[in-house]
Design a protein that fits this description.
Blueprint lengths: L17 E11 L2 E11 L2 E5 L9 E9 L2 E13 L3 E6 L4 H14 L1 E2 L1
């Protein structure tokens, strides 16, 4: 039986992502938890966190914009790795949210 490599194929990201290290909070059905973004693009992100999620869950990520201030962005879990983290595809982002994401990518990002 062939092993499917989920990291390849035509359905992979069409938007360039940036490697980042940004501490965030995220909220799902089990409440609010801490996490760290390991990559970020205007289309989504990967959150390092051991919290319980399921593909298709809607998750709120709270992105830091200034000392103590955060912007909430909604995402859908696209895949997850138990005890490591999960990938989100952002949904219904506003222009202001996209600008915050772009600013964070420019400030903290390294091309991948």
């Amino acid at each position: 039986m062939a092993v499917l490599d989920r990291r390849s194929g035509e359905d992979r990201r069409a938007v360039k992502r940036r490697q980042v290290t940004i501490d965030v909070d995220w909220e799902g059905s089990e409440g609010r938890k801490p996490g760290t973004l390991s990559d970020l693009s205007p289309a989504g992100c990967f959150v390092l966190s051991s919290g319980e999620v399921t593909e298709g869950d809607n998750i709120r990520v709270f992105l830091p914009i200034d000392e103590g201030m955060k912007v909430q962005v909604l995402g859908e879990v696209r895949n997850h790795v138990i005890e490591i983290g999960f990938a989100l595809k952002f949904v219904d982002t506003t222009e202001a949210q996209v600008q915050v994401i772009s600013d964070l990518m420019a400030k903290f990002g390294v091309d991948r």
